[in-house]
C-alpha cells in the first residue's frame, strides 16, 4: 500500500503582543491577522475529529481487505461519512469544489484518496499559527502597556477572545473618561474628540487637550491637527498608550 491514494485500492495578566494600530471588528479573530488563506472555520475541533475518524475507518477497511475479510461494515461507514468529509475538505480547499475522497477504479473496486484528508488535518492543526507566524512584521507592544483607560476596560473581553466587545469597551471607556476630564457631557465620541483636540484656543466651557511637545514645533502641530481628522475618518485616536496630554482651559 504505497502513497495516500489506495486502489481496491480557537492574560491572567500576561503580556499579549498586539499591533498598535489595529482596530478589529471581528469576534474571535486576532487583530494582527495575516490575510486569510482559507475560509473561516465554524468548528475546527469537530472537523478534525471527523477527518481523523475517516482515516481510522479507512485503515480498518484496508486491514480487513488485506486478509480477504468481509469489509461490508467498513465500507458502509466510509460511505456514510463520505458526504460530510467531502463538505469539510471543500470548505478547506475552496479551489477544489468537485473534490471526492471515494471513487471506483477501472474494475469497479473502491478507491480512497487519503491525501486530501491528511492535507485537511494538517490545515486544521496549523491554521491558528498562520496569523502570527506568517503575518508581516509590524510594530507591536504588550497589551498591558496601554493606558489604564484602554486596557482596564478591554482586558476581560480580550482574554476571552471577544475582540469586538473588547474594542467597544475600550472606546466606551475612553469616551467616559474624556467627558469627565473635560467636564463635558454635551458631546461624545467623534465630536467630543474633535472638540478636545481642536487647535483652536480654549473657550469658556470648552477646554482643549494638547499633545506633549513644543506647541510651536511643526511636527507637534501636525500631530495635533491629525487627531480630530483621524477621528472623523472613523479611526481610534492613538492616545491609548501612556503618553500624557495637557489640559488647557
Describe the structure concisely.
The protein has 249 residues and is mainly α.
Major beta sheet, specifics? 3 strands, antiparallel
Contiguous runs where pLDDT drops below 50 for at least 5 residues = 1-39, 232-242
Please tell me the total number of domains: 2
Structural class: mainly alpha
Shape: rod-shaped
Helical stretch count? 7
- Assess the beta-strand content as a share of residues: 5-15%
Order of strands across the main sheet: 1-4-3
Task: Give, in order, the helices and strands.
Answer: EEHHEEHEHHHEHE
* Structural Rg: 28 Å
Count of distinct strands: 7
Q: Distance between the terminal alpha carbons, to the nearest Å?
A: 82 Å
The average pLDDT value, as a whole number, equals 75
Helical content (DSSP H or I, runs of 4+): 40-55%
Describe the fold and architecture.
- By secondary structure, this protein is mainly alpha-helical.
- The protein folds into two domains: 5-9 and 26-133, no CATH class; 141-248, no CATH class.
- It is 48% helix and 9% strand.
- It has seven helices and seven strands.
- The protein has helices at 44-66, 72-92, 114-133, 148-159, 163-182, 189-196, 218-232, and strands at residues 5-7, 17-19, 102-104, 110-113, 140-142, 208-210, 246-248.
- The strands form three sheets. The protein has a three-stranded antiparallel β-sheet. It has a two-stranded antiparallel sheet with strand order 2-5.
- Helix 5 crosses helix 6 (189-196) and helix 6 (189-196) packs antiparallel against helix 7 (218-232).
- It is rod-shaped.
- Mean pLDDT is 75; it is low at 1-39 and 232-242.
Amino acid at each position: 500500500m504505497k502513497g495516500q491514494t489506495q486502489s481496491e485500492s480557537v492574560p491572567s495578566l500576561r503580556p499579549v503582543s498586539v499591533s498598535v494600530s489595529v482596530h478589529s471588528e471581528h469576534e474571535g479573530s486576532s487583530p494582527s491577522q495575516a490575510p486569510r488563506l482559507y475560509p473561516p472555520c465554524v468548528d475546527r475541533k469537530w472537523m478534525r475529529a471527523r477527518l481523523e475518524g475517516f482515516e481510522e475507518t479507512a485503515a480498518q477497511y484496508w486491514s480487513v481487505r488485506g486478509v480477504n475479510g468481509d469489509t461490508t461494515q467498513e465500507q458502509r461507514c466510509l460511505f456514510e461519512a463520505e458526504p460530510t468529509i467531502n463538505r469539510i475538505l471543500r470548505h478547506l480547499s475552496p479551489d477544489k469544489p468537485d473534490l471526492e475522497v471515494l471513487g471506483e477504479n477501472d474494475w469497479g473496486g473502491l478507491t480512497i484518496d487519503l491525501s486530501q484528508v491528511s492535507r485537511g488535518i494538517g490545515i486544521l492543526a496549523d491554521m491558528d499559527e498562520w496569523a502570527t507566524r506568517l503575518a508581516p512584521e509590524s510594530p507591536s507592544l504588550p497589551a498591558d502597556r496601554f493606558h489604564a483607560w484602554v486596557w482596564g476596560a478591554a482586558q476581560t473581553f480580550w482574554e476571552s477572545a471577544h475582540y469586538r466587545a473588547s474594542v467597544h469597551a475600550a472606546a466606551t471607556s475612553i469616551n467616559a473618561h474624556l467627558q469627565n476630564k473635560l467636564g463635558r457631557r454635551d458631546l461624545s465620541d467623534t465630536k467630543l474628540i474633535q472638540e478636545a483636540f481642536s487647535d483652536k484656543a480654549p473657550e469658556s466651557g470648552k477646554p482643549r487637550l494638547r499633545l506633549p511637545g513644543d506647541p510651536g514645533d511643526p511636527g507637534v502641530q501636525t500631530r495635533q491637527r491629525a487627531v480630530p481628522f483621524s477621528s472623523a475618518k472613523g479611526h481610534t485616536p492613538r492616545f491609548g498608550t501612556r503618553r500624557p496630554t495637557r489640559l488647557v482651559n
